[in-house]
Design a protein that fits this description.
Length: 376
């Protein structure tokens, strides 16, 4: 008989992980698995417990509950240097008096790796982060992005199973951040190390991650691939935090119809909803079509604002019932001036019925890219 392939044990398992600081539940029962070789991100607004979770995985913070397994071994109470992980912090924390080569070699020296071997590995690591030739520079002679790449080389040179990165690009300007996002992804694929990446920037998480755990108030709100989170957000929080969306409220009527609080009627694909149920709908701006006034099933609206965004045009429209919507259209279509009478329509399958969050706010558009830093 052929042996069944044994599924690889996950690289990291968090089992009901908890951290309390007196009355604050910084991490409140997090359970998840990170697969070997995965680029896994913890994403969420400031204070949701990302850093605390990462520090517990690294052994820098002791959990007040739950367990941490690394490659199937319970390491909940092991010190950082006993764990096969390395951490890269937001602030580079390079030794200012050591040159780049010595900064990268630091961990190897402490482990007693022979000089020639250390030099070879330092060279490899610097090549990986595209800083070969910078060995003799001091940190103050490097740009922020270069310093962060040295920090990365210093972590990679130890060949950990897992690299923990806490907003490593947070201190850099947007252009450099975008460039280093691609670099980080390339390096991760090249070395095949598992990355656990902390960020509050949804765009950054979507760009780089294989899977993302969206956190709020110490809990995992939803875990999935970037596509799953964007296409099928499970809650209003996720719909709101990932990308931009229109949130609508209404009540279910017969035949899949929903009467919106603005008085207009729309349809949803879900037919299991009882008549009279109050629902919240999420409709992405790009899922809304601008159609001629009078089109069957469409809702009449007026263009209040139009913003040219390069490849797309973003319209703010308001329906006769007073519902404000954001509509994103390709710029190849007809340009509509402010004040135009239009109608809006969307496929019922694009009106996602959300699990109701605790705070049912007013209708309207909300979204990550309009906010300062994605933290609602
Ligand atoms: N040493 C500490 N003592 C008391 N409270 C703490 C401590 N460290 C963190 N907290 C609290 O725990 C919660 C989670 O903090 P954490 O640093 O994990 O958040 P975060 O998601 O990393 O936020 P940010 O995006 O701002 O870095 C916050 O309410 C924070 O104030
Ligand atoms: Mg943090």
């Amino acid at each position: 008989m052929m042996a069944q392939p044994v599924p690889a044990s996950p690289e990291i398992q968090l089992l009901d992980l908890e951290k309390r600081f007196r009355e604050i539940r910084a991490v409140d029962g997090v359970s998840l698995e990170v697969v070997s070789g995965e680029f896994f991100s913890l994403l969420g607004p400031s204070g949701c417990g990302k850093t605390t979770t990462l520090r517990m995985i690294g052994g820098f913070e002791a959990p007040t509950g739950g367990r941490i397994l690394l490659r199937g071994r319970d390491m909940t109470s092991d010190p950082p240097d006993k764990r096969p992980v390395n951490m890269v912090f937001q602030h580079y924390a390079l030794f200012p008096h050591l040159d780049v080569g010595d900064n990268v070699a630091f961990g190897l020296r402490r482990k007693g790796v022979a000089k020639a071997e250390a030099a070879r590995r330092v060279g490899e690591a610097l090549e990986l982060v595209r800083l070969d030739g910078y060995e003799r520079r001091r940190p103050h002679q490097l740009s922020g992005g270069q310093q962060q790449r040295v920090a990365l080389a210093r972590a990679l040179v130890n060949r950990p199973n897992v690299l923990l990165l806490d907003e490593p690009l947070g201190a850099l300007d947007l252009k450099l951040r975008r460039q280093l996002q691609l670099e980080l992804k390339r390096i991760q694929v090249e070395v095949g190390i598992t990355f656990v990446y902390v960020t509050h920037d949804q765009e950054e998480a979507l760009t780089m991650s294989d899977r993302i755990a969206v956190m709020q108030a110490g809990k995992v709100e939803q875990l999935g691939t970037p596509e799953e989170l964007y296409e099928r957000p499970a809650t209003r929080f996720v719909a709101d935090f990932i990308g931009t969306t229109n949130l609508l409220h209404g009540q279910v009527e017969a035949g899949g119809a929903v009467r919106l609080t603005s008085g207009e009627v729309t349809h949803v694909a879900q037919d299991a909803l009882a008549i009279g149920t109050a629902v919240e709908l999420s409709i992405r701006p790009e899922a809304i079509e601008l159609v001629p006034v009078g089109a069957v099933g469409a809702i009449r609206a007026n263009v209040e604002q139009a913003a040219y965004l390069g490849t797309t045009i973003s319209y703010q429209v308001r329906t006769a019932g007073g519902l404000g919507l954001t509509v994103l259209t390709p710029k190849t279509g007809v340009r509509l001036p402010v004040g135009s009478e239009v109608a809006v329509a969307w496929a019922p399958s694009e009106a996602l019925v959300l699990g109701r969050g605790p705070d049912a706010a007013a209708d309207g558009v909300r979204g990550g890219w309009q906010q300062e830093d994605g933290a609602a």
